[in-house]
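Each letter names a residue; the fold follows as tokens. Both lines appear below:
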Amino acid sequence: MGKVVMYSSVSVDGFIADDDDRPGPLFDWLSGGDVALDDSGALRVSQASYDYVRPYWDGIGVTIVGRHVFDLTDGWDGKPPSGVGHVVVVTHRPAPDGWDPAAPFHFAGGVEAAVAAAQELAGDRIVEVAAGDVGGQVLAAGLIDEVRMDVVPVVLGSGKRYFGAVNAQHLLEDPDVVLRGRRVLHLRYPVRR
């Protein structure tokens, strides 16, 4: 099975969005470079960021998100973001009325069920878990193998925390990647078992 990776861009004070769910400048690094990160050409990063992020994105088989993110994005209109094959949504509610059952979205009642479903769908590819409340719950359940952060030089002051409402200590190993891009610091930490 592939790794289970918690991932997001994050402010230096630990937030993935402001109090109104807006990322603000957290994604500016995705448009400030010279190298196209995707086929659309809309995302442009430094060469260092491209060399680090593109192989990771290419390895993702499934993304796990919470219902809040699903609702904020209107379920990406039934098309998983960034070419990901499937999305697993952690929720206690059914799919929205009129939702296309053929869309590659799967609904799970808890984080353990979501990770199990995602691993089945992903095979040996990466299971990406969106940071925030769901990511923190997956970490607390001991199901995260690696934490990836794209740390952006901004202080938001308050907002949605990278690790959600986690209120217990979790040890990570020393970072095995510390890479400077333009307006971003890429960090990767294996989770201590």
Remarks:
- The mean pLDDT is 95.
